[in-house]
Sequence to fold (300 residues):
Amino acid sequence: MICGDVGYGKTEIAIRAAFKAVMEGKQVAILAPTTVLVQQHFATFSERLSAYPINIEFLSRFRKQKDQKQVINDLVNGKVDICIGTHMLIQPNVKFSDLGLLIIDEEQRFGVSQKEQMKKIRAEVDVLTLTATPIPRTLQMSMAGIKDISMVMTPPDERIPIKTYVTEKSDELIRDAIVRELDRDGQVYFVHNRVQDIHSVAKKITEIIPEAKIAIGHGQLNETELEKTMLDFSDGKIDVLVCTTIIESGLDIQNANTMIINRADTFGLAQLYQLRGRIGRGPKRSYAYFLVPADVASMK
Fold:
């Protein structure tokens, strides 16, 4: 298990481990908890390993049925070296020609049935798990010596600590935070974890700062629409992404360096920690605002 703070380079370790396994003639499976994170990993791995004759594919609901069948067929025939996917990757119909390494990103985000499927694979191959917030059971197994654990203790050299504020919600604060980020050509996450009224929240932000290009992202969107929104945000076409916790794991957009979390008091500590880790991934100073009701803010 690799345990390290968010943004400390766990993905880079995974890339190097996968590269070593492929160079030894083995296939690599990489499990991620969300389709968005699968897309992110696919882009990162493809870019980092583009100079080598390594065939990288992905499996998620973002792919058409025809493409999914082709990838599954190529896996069993040994034509795919690295396959990145959601739990779809561990379904009984997915077979590998010669799987040598299973990499699990954010294992704590998978359900019981998915972990049972993982156990069947673990008995036969090497496993590398990546996490910033290990669950107590996994941590206990590591401390007892059942699992090996390696800690990533130091951040990349250019990393600047994130400034975090717990404060009462106000339109003025939201506008100031967004304007300051846009003035330095950056982007903003506005996290609101209720799909029922996320559109009204986005409309309110548009009224507060009409010059900003705003989009909405959540798990109940049409998959094509969600993919386009995330890619547009990654490409800098969107200034403010109003979203749910779908961005919680693994997104690496270095130009997004301000995060505003609405009703932060309704989130768990691990969730807030993971969410905040989506910013501060570049050389710029980053800012996180945890907005809470007045009675909670007064308890600081």
The two ends are 35 Å apart (CA to CA). The CA atoms of residues 231 and 237 lie 9 Å apart.
